[in-house]
Write a structure and sequence with these properties.
Keywords: Membrane, Transmembrane, Transmembrane helix. This is Morphogenic membrane protein MmpB. It contains one helix and no strands. The protein has 42 residues and is an all-alpha fold.
Amino acid sequence: MLWSDPENKPPKELRDAQAMMRRAGLLLALAMMVAMLVVGIR
């Protein structure tokens, strides 16, 4: 790694997309938990 190498930071669009995917994943996991609970109660 040289001092002249460019920083390997992802562009803002990519970071935003990653944050959105993370939120969508959390939401999906929460929905799955609620669905399991509802099915378990029945």
